[in-house]
Design a protein that fits this description.
With 311 residues, the chain is mainly beta. Helices cover 3% and strands 52% of the residues. The chain is built from 1 helix and 28 strands.
C-alpha cells in the first residue's frame, strides 16, 4: 500500500520552496546535539539542514533510487541512510563525504538506525529481513529473520542490546542484538505496522499502523498496555517526546498528534502538511520535532509552544 500511495500522490505537487525536496519526504531525523535535521526523499537525495534556522547545509546524492530512511549517530558526526538501492550509505555530517556502502539486501531498505555506541548499523528491508552491520568494516554481523512480509522500520533500545522492528505481516518484533534471537512478538494490529519506537527507559515500545491505531507494549512481558485510535485515519510514524509517557505521531490526514500515553488522550494537534505527513522525529528533550510529508516539505515544530518553528 505504501509504495502505491507514494506513487499516486507524487503526480501533482507544487513547486519547491524553503526546506523542501523535489519529491516526497520519506523520513526525517534530528541529531542528538540538536544542531541538525536530516531528510530522505523520493528525489534520491538526503539533505542536512541547520535546525536553528532551516538553512540547507548538505545535499547528498550518492543513492541509486528513492531514499527511505535516515538516522544520525549518537555523536551527531555520521549519518546513515537507505533506500531503493538495497544498501545502506554512511556519510560524514560535516563534509557530506561518503564513508562507506553496506550492500547485501535483496530488496529496498525502509528503516535504518545506529546503536548508541555507533559501532553497529541496523537496516530493515522489504526482503523480509533486518541486517546488523559493523560500521567500521562494512561486514554484516547478523541477519534477523522471521518476519513473513516486508519490514518497514527498525529502532534500537537505549542500552543498545535490543532492536524492535515493524512489518507488513501485522507484527512488531523484539530482537537480541547479541545473538540475533527473536525475544518477543507483538501481535494485535489488523493492518501493516509502519513504525516502531522505544521509550527512553527501554521498557516500552510504541507501534504505529495503517489500521488507525497506536499500540503501547511492555517489552518485558509483551503485554499490550494501551491502544490509541483515530477512526478512519492511518498512522505513518511515531516518536517519544523525551519521556516514557508522551509521544508524537504522524498520519494520513497530514496532522501531527501529541499524546499522553499514560492517560490515553490526545493533547494537541500540529497542522501544516498538505495531505499525508509521512515521517516524524523528536529531539532528546522532546521540545523540538521535525516532520516530512507527501507535500515535499520538511517542517520544524516547537512542541512546547505547539507551533511551527521553521520550514
Amino acid at each position: 500500500m505504501r509504495a502505491l500511495v507514494l506513487v499516486l500522490l507524487a503526480l501533482a505537487l507544487p513547486a519547491r520552496a524553503a526546506m523542501e525536496h523535489d519529491g516526497i519526504v520519506n523520513a526525517v531525523a534530528l541529531s542528538r546535539d540538536g544542531r541538525f535535521v536530516a531528510s530522505a526523499s523520493y528525489d534520491q537525495s538526503v539533505r542536512i539542514w541547520d535546525a536553528a534556522g532551516g538553512r540547507e547545509l548538505q545535499v547528498l546524492t550518492d543513492h541509486a533510487g528513492n531514499v527511505n530512511c535516515v538516522a544520525f549517530s549518537a555523536d551527531s558526526k555520521r549519518l546513515v541512510s537507505g533506500g531503493a538501492g538495497q544498501e545502506l550509505l554512511l556519510h560524514a555530517v560535516d563534509t557530506g563525504a561518503l564513508l562507506r556502502r553496506f550492500p547485501g539486501h535483496d530488496n529496498a531498505i525502509y528503516g535504518c538506525a545506529f546503536t548508541p555506541d555507533g559501532r553497529s548499523l541496523l537496516s530493515a528491508s522489504w526482503d523480509h529481513s533486518l541486517g546488523v552491520w559493523d560500521a567500521a568494516s562494512g561486514r554484516r554481523r547478523l541477519a534477523l529473520t522471521g518476519h513473513r512480509a516486508a519490514v518497514n522500520a527498525v529502532a534500537v533500545s537505549p542500552d543498545g542490546r535490543r532492536a524492535a522492528s515493524a512489518s507488513y505481516d501485522l507484527t512488531a518484533r523484539l530482537w537480541d542484538l547479541g545473538t540475533g534471537q527473536e525475544l518477543r512478538r507483538f501481535e494485535g494490529h489488523e493492518r501493516s505496522v509502519n513504525a516502531v519506537a522505544f521509550s527512553p527507559d527501554g521498557k516500552q515500545v510504541l507501534t504505529a499502523s495503517t489500521d488507525g491505531t497506536l499500540k503501547l507494549w511492555d517489552t518485558a512481558s509483551g503485554d499490550l498496555l494501551r491502544s490509541l485510535e483515530t477512526p478512519g485515519r492511518f498512522f505513518t510514524a511515531v516518536a517519544f517526546l523525551g519521556a516514557p509517557g508522551k509521544a508524537i505521531s504522524a498520519g494520513g490526514d497530514g496532522l501531527l498528534r501529541i499524546w499522553n500515553l499514560d492517560a490515553g488522550t490526545e493533547l494537541a494537534r500540529l497542522a501544516g502538511h498538505d495531505r499525508v505527513a509521512w515521517s516524524v522525529a523528536a529531539s532528546a528533550k522532546g521540545d523540538l520535532a521535525a516532520s516530512g510529508g507527501i507535500d515535499r516539505t520538511v517542517r520544524l515544530w516547537d512542541v512546547t509552544a505547539g507551533r511551527e518553528r521553521a520550514r
